Amino acid sequence: MYVTFDSDLLSRAPAIPLPGTAASGPLRDHQVRLKAGQFLFHQGDEARTIYRVSEGVLRLSRVTERGHEQVIAFGYPGDILGLPVRGLRNTDCDALTPAVLTAIPAHLPETSSGGAAEATFLAAAALWEIGAMQEHLTTLGRTSARERVASFLVVLMRRVGTRDDTGLHIELPMSRADIAGFLGLRTETVSRAFTDFRQSGLIALPSAQHVTVLKPEALADVAESD
Amino acid sequence: MYVTFDSDLLSRAPAIPLPGTAASGPLRDHQVRLKAGQFLFHQGDEARTIYRVSEGVLRLSRVTERGHEQVIAFGYPGDILGLPVRGLRNTDCDALTPAVLTAIPAHLPETSSGGAAEATFLAAAALWEIGAMQEHLTTLGRTSARERVASFLVVLMRRVGTRDDTGLHIELPMSRADIAGFLGLRTETVSRAFTDFRQSGLIALPSAQHVTVLKPEALADVAESD
DNA sequence: CGCGTCTTTGAGAAACATCAACAGCGGTGG
DNA sequence: CCACCGCTGTTGATGTTTCTCAAAGACGCG
Q1: Contact A184, B140 (CB under 8 A)
Q2: Residue B153 host element (H or E)
Q3: Contact between B115 and A114 using a beta-carbon 8 Å cutoff
Q4: Which strand C bases fall within 7 angstroms of a protein CB?
């Protein structure tokens, strides 16, 4: 008796409890505030803490030798960011909107002693991240641009979509170039996919950063079609 | 000692020590042997242990609704397989060659108490895996088929390539379809990339499963060109 | 040796990238 | 408050790449 992964992985916000210091007082002291465009860390920085997003949206990216930017992930509230690989940040991270984050100590103890709660938390967060990345890999494995864009929208719709009397809304704080970099496409192709969905009646685009999903099921069909 | 690792991620075999039960006796009891084609686990299985590959090559894959197979990773000796997501296997895993694996207990304790060594090990393995997956994401973000195939060959070359007096050899126990599924391409496209490299003098193909790298630097250049 | 499977090759169609120009929007300064 | 300017996003036309469909060759296995 288990649920299909797709659905569960998409709503991961409150899944991982913070390390067992719940009684140690408010975490205000460890909060970080970022303005849009500010960097939280850079690739190669030494990593002693990780972050949980409280508010805002962040972008994790890597830059190849020739300057091509690959977007690894977007960080939404509830997400854990900055998991260290060999003790170092593995990506750049900057804020797409004003953001508030909670810093969590997360250095792996050299000895196996001590920090059991931390290690457990780290492991849980990392395993969660792996699941999300595998989902993303599956998305990138799909060859069609429309499928990738539709999949992207469906994920956002389920995670951060808001429904009111006018429809199901998604805000897109990232640029088309960011979306393209995330999906392995070009900005023009992403734009054309949006236009295609709009002309097909699947979505409306009140503005470039605001998507109204008119036919969620149809959009999901596009995303999951072979 | 010939290899120069661009990234430490490529030589991850001996990086993560087993949990702190080194004195608890030989691990023979926990070894698993698989024949080629046998499954180690399936997506959705409950996961109480993880595995470290001792010998052989395994394939981790997921199957979409419509039967399209996405290969998530290949498991080579030293790799950790089967990290649980929400306590369940997130992929299928089957052996491409006869394989020997060591089972490692790795259930995250519900309470934060106990299993500090296990949690630390799990966290280290998971973080390592994240780094590897981010590398792969960067590869998939590249648009060109030849770049992806070249990148794939370079990674294998550095991890499992063997040099003798006749050249630098790579065995490919996986099919072209597996490689295609891993890189988000079609088998024909993968085959054409191999042919292209062969005609360009970068590699030789004594058989479909045996690659001899003639110009490693040139191949790496193809892999990392924008 | 025959057979099925995997790989390679070919020709054609479709998709995406590229190059280029325009529109829309927000911000700035007059 | 409005005009201007720059940036992002959109649209169009063209070229390249890859996918698709098809068939022949190579290889391993019984």
Answers
A1: yes
A2: helix B145-160
A3: no
A4: 6-11, 15-20, 25-26
Spell out which residues of chain A touch residue B88, defining contact as CB-CB under 8 Å.
Answer: 2, 5
Round to whole Å and give the CA distance between A177 and A180.
5
CB atoms within 10 A of CB A130: 23
Q: CA A160: distance to chain centroid?
A: 11
Half-sphere exposure of A44 (CA within 13 A, CB side): 3
Lowest mean pLDDT among A25-39, A141-155, B67-81, B159-173: A25-39
State whether A133 and B128 contact (CB < 8 Å).
no
CA angle at B196 for the pair B192 and B197, rounded to the nearest 5°: 120
State pLDDT tens for residues B93-135.
999 999 999 999 876 655 445 567 778 888 889 999 999 999 9
Q: Tokens in use for B60? A: 């981790």
A225 contacts in chain B (CB < 8 Å): 66
* SS3 call for B63: strand
Neighbours of A8 (CB within 10 A): 15
The structure tokens 């499963």 sit at B209
pLDDT for residue B25:
42
Note whether B136 contacts A138, CB cutoff 8 Å. Answer: no
The gap between A12 CA and D23 C1' (Å) is: 49
- Calpha distance A18→A25 (Å, rounded): 13
Residues 6+ apart with CB under 8 A from B104: B18, B19, B30, B49, B50, B51, B52, B80, B121
Residues of A with CB below 8 A from B143's CB?
184
Residue B115's identity, in one-letter code, is: G
| Chain A touched by B181 (CB under 8 Å) | yes
Backbone angles phi, psi at A28, to 5 degrees: -50, -40
Nearest protein residue to nucleotide D17, judged by CA and C1' positions: B144
